[in-house]
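Build the 3D complex.
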Amino acid sequence: MTATEGGTALHGPGAAGGSRVTTRSRALRLRTVLNLAKVEAWLLFRSLLVLAGLLAGGLVIWLVIHPVEPVWWNASWEIGYGQLLLGMAVLIAAQLAAGRPRRDAMADLYASFPATAATRTVAHLTGLAGTVPASLLLIGGTAVAVEMLAPIGAPGVAALAAGLLLVIAAGAAGIAIGTRFPHPLAGVLAALALFVPFQQSNNLSGATVWLYPWVKPHQLGSLPGPPAGYPPAGAHAAELAGLAVLAGVAALAVTKRGARAWGLLASAGILAAAAICVAGAEQLRPIPATELNRLVAEAADPAAAQHCTTADQVRYCLYPGFGPELPAIQAPVSAVLAHLPARLAQPLTVRQAAPIFPDPTLTHGHPKQQVTQWNAQLQNAPGYGAAAPASAVYLTAGSWPGDTQAAEARFGLALATAEWAVHLPPATPAATHGMECVPLDQAREAIAIWLAIQAIHPSAGELQSGLIGPDGGHVGVMVRGVITLTWNYPSVGMQALASVGTQTTDAGYLLASAMSRLPERKVSHVLHTAWPRWVNWHTTDAQLAAELGIPMPAVPQPLSPRPGMTIVSAPGNPPQNPVCTT
Amino acid sequence: MDEMTVNVRTAAVRADGLSRRYGATRALDEVDLTLQRGITGLLGPNGAGKTTLLSILATVGEPDAGRVSVFGLDPRDTAERVEIRRRLGYLPQELGYHRHFTVARFLDYVAILKEITDRRARAQEVARVLAAIGLEDRARTRIRSLSGGMRQRLGIAQALLGHPDLLILDEPTAGLDPEQRLRFRELLSGLPGDPVIVLSTHQADDIAAICPQVVVLLQGRVHFAGTPSELAATAAGRVWAADQRDTRAHLSWRGGDGRWRHIGDQPPAGAEPVTPTVEDGYLMLSHAAGAR
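Done.
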């Protein structure tokens, strides 16, 4: 009796009694593995669980990526986040597949087949190829989506490949678990265990975070460009590959095998463990001091690293590689300048800032003294507010919004430009300890808001929403012992602007809103005739309204502090916002 | 223990001194058995050790003591065990199913596990067994949608894949309706290649209808091995029919014709002797084993 291509020839001369044991070729076993793997791959490929993981992964990546114009060195890791979700689904699906015979009370039947448990396990592991299309689709689909958002930089191939390996390693782990624990809960619990480190990644610090299957680096998206080896994507991919092999060995170890097979398994396991250790050590290796020095220097003194372009008397200074963002940044600034009734008195600089901090994932392995020194350098970096000159608007690198919030960001930049044009500080001065000044009853505030409205034309609803706080009530700050109601356009909460110098008020907005209902030519004429007067901080809202011939808008009366009322303020900060007097 | 040989032809399957314990329970007690080609029925009450014996013959279970030889191959040797499995079709007593698989997908999957690696040959084989058990119109139906009887037929179908030389069926007719049982009998009788078929059942009439050989297993021991007529003959002269129940009889039951059938050592008053059946012989043996 021999094995044939057409199947087993199970009856024939000599089959009964004393027939010779025929040695099946390895080719037959290989064909069986490949056939089974093909079925398992197909089952995984069309698994609803995997499909759900793919959709969830894609959705999460989109939600994470699309709010800002992406930088590839961050987006590559964000795509890995989606792969983590897909990996969880694959882990569960693979565990269910590997545990299928025992869970469905078919272990006895399976034990009677010539395809051994080892053959089936190898087929399950090979069948993980069925998850590769989903992973590649996730990578490809999200990469296309990222490209459509005009990203900065180039895709991180190692990080993207690591995401694929994460999915395969998760599947292999699922098979290892399924061969021992067929209950569906085992896979679910393992998938959650895979997810927990990611959820806790904000609480983790130091280089050991890289040893987890996938974590989100704290401030990768804010870097003007990643230092070499940060994040250690190549080493992490190697670790995940080692984990996949180790999980495969663990899955096969449960099957009864001969001494030779055990030897091979042990060798593979030792090699995988060695690869994991080497990759782990590589990930724990400190980032070279020269790289960190360069990064800190770029953050602390952007001017030394940035490329500048001048247009309409405004200098735009961006980090290398961020050039594609220039048109989006230039548009609102130019629009404000176009509506400005007077020529610029002094040049404006719009500059990117990288408000980074020396977190332990960056500085691990370096002497404390060195870290303290980097910290001190970064304290003086623009974006922290301490050294913001009056002639610059600072934008956070890597935070320029994508399509959905671009209008808010454009308005925020337009308002900052207009504030600078009316001599309000575009960034928080050091003397105020980080508190924005309030242009209390200053006509220039309404003018700045009016200029921004004329430049961007946001909807009335969006503008009105600035009057209401997140909880539906009015928001106010203490100025000179009185609560002053504030107007906070949505862009205030965004990170696109590294620093905001002025806290706008209800009164300023309401007057600007009334001005925007007048013909622009009329307002421009009034402003043009006495521009120095209007930008003087002593000129009041009422004077501007009178000049324009409009009544002063009614401002809701704020609460006055009563005896016994406690005004809560942040520790160490003065309890009141200063009035803008420059 | 006496060795009971079913047939003097070449032994295809041989068990020598098989013993198996589950804790304090002795499932098999030094079972010696020799089977040759053809159908062998295995009769025995619940707990007699039938399933344990069949699982050992199917190389799934391992005996605590004794040895098995299948086609001259020793299942203790890894390579020979695989070779036995290549010739084996097995239907366990309690078989779950991958209920989300379709019928055809399930059979195709099992065919791969039986090392039928050519796709076209596999498709033909799946079609063949589907036709054999009358489920060809259910090929695309998910298993969870099948009735219990259909699932049982599917279990039989998977065992038939690959033209096995040794077919071990543990209670294959459980859940089948009378028509399906008839079809099953016809199917087994008509299998080509003269395979070794061992089936366990509680249905003595199945045994009588299709099994040239029968083995009675009681309390883990082989109590009878022979032909169905020989089994029936063990009750010869001890089976009577009467209008009244006789309390002295070892076993009494009322038949479909309203008359009482008695198995005992003495005929009841007014009783007339009847020709014993396989069931009578089995019950006689079973009673005798219980009395011992």
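The CA atoms of residues 17 and 149 of chain B lie 36 Å apart.
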